[in-house]
Amino acid sequence: MSYTQGTQVFEYKGQQYMLQEFMDRQKIRREDYIVNLKEAVEFKQLFCILNPKLRIKEPLVLSKCSQKNIVDFQSFYDELKKIDFDIENIGLTLCKCLSCNQNPIKTITGNIHFHEPFYEALNKFSKIDNQTKLEKFTYKFEKTEEESYVVRELIQINNPKIKVVQQPKQMDAQNLINVKGNEGFVDLMNDEEYQKFFGATQIQGFAYKAQGMQQNIGVLQIDYGKDGIRANVEEAVEKLNQNANSQLKQFHFNVVGMQVQLKNDVFNQNKGEFKFQK
To answer: How large is the average pLDDT for residues 230-238?
Structure first.
């Protein structure tokens, strides 16, 4: 729609204005939606209820619909144009369920709301490779949009440099917290820099969290876990003695001690120096 004033032509962008009104005023607010959420949310309706071939981009929830179905804003606006925007006299039927068929929408206020949380989730979901093949997805809302992420049980990723390992269902606490004998353990649960390595990282739209890392220095294996760093120096000394060749044994070769010192550049996150010795 456009009109002329003098020699200037002005265009009235009614569709964009209406969408912005929904997003600013007539909406389900993110803060209200997540306030009591404890689990991730599964979104099952990805296609417009009015146009099943159209993937939802700008979700409008039919608040009085018994099934709370969702229509894409584009389809909603197209229906408005069909009735020449005379919604009060003609009414809109945007869903085929019994409740919506019997009660056409005569006013937008209170009946249709922009779904702000779903819109956020859809934007993150749209960044995922091959997302058009999926019919539903799960989204974990955190305190901020930046921290929130799409969740999938089976992860597929086309990056040869990334190896995805499924997290074990049970963790053996003794593998992480063992302070007996000469099996050293450094507690780093409260070290902010160290813990950054185990935070969520966004890759191709998914959030990944490191479960741990192993480093082998000769016969010594060092385990980096969320709780801290573990190194079994005693076991490494035993291996050295067991694997000594016949010539060394002839001269009664025997390792009696070992000291390992890790510096900042080993992990790029840990502070200070950590020592393990026998």
So the answer is: 73
Is 141 found in the same domain as 7?
A: yes
Per-residue pLDDT tens over the stretch 117-135? 999 999 999 887 667 778 8
The average pLDDT across 233-258 equals 65
Considering the domain architecture, whether residues 201 and 82 belong to the same structural domain is answered as no
250: pLDDT strictly greater than 80: no
Instruction: Collect all residues with Cβ–Cβ distance below 8 Å to 124 and sequence separation of at least 6.
Output: 139, 148, 149, 150, 205
Instruction: Please check whether residue 167 lies inside any domain of the structure.
Output: no
For residues 189 and 71, which has the higher predicted lDDT (pLDDT)? 71
SS3 276: strand
Report d(CA 248, CA 269) in Å as an integer. Answer: 39
Predicted TM-score of the model (pTM): 0.56
Same domain, 206 and 78: no
Residues 272 and 258 sit within 8 Å (Cβ to Cβ)? no
Number of domains in the chain: 2
Residue 17 CA to residue 19 CA, distance in Å, equals 5
Residue 80 and residue 193 share a domain: no
Instruction: Single out the residue of 137, 122, 116 nearest to residue 29, CA to CA.
Output: 116
Which residues span the domain enclosing 121? 2-151
pLDDT bucket at 24, cuts 50 / 70 / 90: very high
